[in-house]
Design goal:
CATH architecture: Orthogonal Bundle
Shape: globular
Order of helices and strands: HHEHHEEHH
Helix content: 55-70%
Structural class: mainly alpha
CATH superfamily: Winged helix-like DNA-binding domain superfamily/Winged helix DNA-binding domain
Strand content: 5-15%
CATH class: Mainly Alpha
Oligomer: single chain
Number of strands: 3
Radius of gyration: 19 Å
Distance between the termini: 47 Å
Number of domains: 1
Length: 148
C-alpha cells in the first residue's frame, strides 16, 4: 500500500484534461457528421480542404497534407489512397523528386469538400453549444471560443 494518498490534480492537469475532453468531443461530433452526411472522415475533409484551398491546378506534396491533417506520413498515404479510390483526389509523381508524390483534388472532390464544409462548420457550432452547456467545460469553452 502506498504511504499516503496520491495528491489531487493540480490546475495544469485539470486544464489539460478539460482541453483534451473539448478536443475529443469536437472531433467526435465533426467526424460523425461528415461520415453520416458525406461519407468522409474529418481527416479526409482536412486533406480535401487543404487541396481545395491550394491555387487552382497546384498539387500538394504528401508532406504538406501531413501538416494539414496532423497525421503521420504513412497515415496520409493511406488516406490519399482512399481519396483516390473515391475519385476525390488524383495522385501524381513529383517531377523534381523521384520519391515524392503530389496529390490534387478532382472536380468531384472539390464539390464534396464544398458541401462537406457546410456540415463541418455546423458540426463545430453544435459541438461548441453542447460544450457550453457542460458545467465543467463551459468556462473553458467560453475562454477558447467566446460565448456561443
Amino acid at each position: 500500500m502506498p504511504p499516503s494518498p496520491f495528491p489531487p490534480p493540480a490546475r495544469p492537469e485539470i486544464d489539460w484534461r478539460a482541453l483534451h475532453r473539448i478536443d475529443e468531443a469536437m472531433r467526435q461530433e465533426v467526424n460523425a457528421t461528415l461520415v453520416r452526411l458525406h461519407n468522409i472522415t474529418s481527416s479526409e475533409y482536412a486533406a480535401l480542404s487543404a487541396l481545395a484551398r491550394a491555387a487552382p491546378g497546384t498539387p500538394l506534396r504528401l508532406n504538406e497534407l501531413v501538416d494539414a491533417t496532423s497525421l503521420s506520413q504513412s497515415s496520409v498515404s493511406r488516406l490519399v489512397d482512399r481519396l483516390v479510390e473515391g475519385e476525390l483526389v488524383e495522385r501524381h509523381p513529383c517531377p523534381d523528386d523521384r520519391r515524392g508524390i503530389h496529390a490534387s483534388i478532382t472536380a468531384h472532390g472539390f464539390e464534396v469538400a464544398l458541401r462537406a464544409r457546410i456540415s463541418y462548420l455546423s458540426a463545430l457550432r453544435q459541438a461548441r453549444e453542447a460544450l457550453a452547456n457542460d458545467r465543467e467545460l463551459a468556462p473553458y469553452t467560453a475562454r477558447l471560443f467566446g460565448d456561443p
